[in-house]
UniProtKB/TrEMBL annotation:
Pfam families xrefs: Sipho_tail, SPP1_Dit
Origin organism lineage: Bacteria, Bacillati, Bacillota, Bacilli, Lactobacillales
Domain Siphovirus-type tail component RIFT-related: 59-145
Protein name: Uncharacterized protein
Chain ranges of the Siphovirus-type tail component C-terminal domain: 177-248
InterPro entries: Dit_BPSPP_N, Siphovirus-type_tail_C, Siphovirus-type_tail_N
Amino acid sequence: MKVIKIYKFKDSVPDTSIDSDISSEALLIGQNPIENTISGYRTLTVTGRGALGYKLTAQSLDGMDGERYVDSNLPIRPIVVTYQLTTSNAAEMIEMQDKLAAILAAKEFEFSFNDQKDWHYIGTVTATSEVPAGKLSGVGSFTITASDPKKYSAEKVITSSDGKFSFPAGNYLITEMAFTPAASTSSLKITNNSGQRLAVSGTINSGDTIHILPRTQVITLNGVNKLEWLAFDSDFENFKATGSGSTIPTGKLVIKYKEMR
């Protein structure tokens, strides 16, 4: 069976956007569906994108029914993609499977879906089920495990130069803060209205920029590692992107953040 790719045209210019006949659940890597890379690949079903139940930590108590609640958190999210491969000969089938393996080889890669392109997960392929050997058309699957079960929006930016900043209502994750002081300083303190703070001690000259990446625990000054400047009592990893906040001293502050669900 010969596979023919048909292009749609608008004003004599090929339309290379996602084809309407591609599944609404199609997996996108780099905003590109696998269907556009491997001719003969088709997404059939995707499971694991729905609501997750909390994993409870509880304590048994003698003489009492049930257990005492201690804590709860969301578990990892396994997303299973079932697909079909169709080709005209065995050599092409092997080549298609090799291409698919290469596409899915990265660790902790961003991926999204055709019906929600503006939101992405981060995960690693942890299981595969290949198309049966000797078939020219068959069904396989792979599991992407997102150790962080939440999905994230595209990056948003807040810029401030008056020593104050605020986030819109929502649930956010800070990916990076970059601060350039208006005048040379020996310290920087960033606080939010939840009482949390990030504090560093070290010389930051006017025109220098210090970058703080809470999620990856990185602090650099003009590209040089300065993690040792971080005050031991700083709320580094869990600094909340909520409400309003301030910087001491004043300067240009750029906060990059993502909405999460």
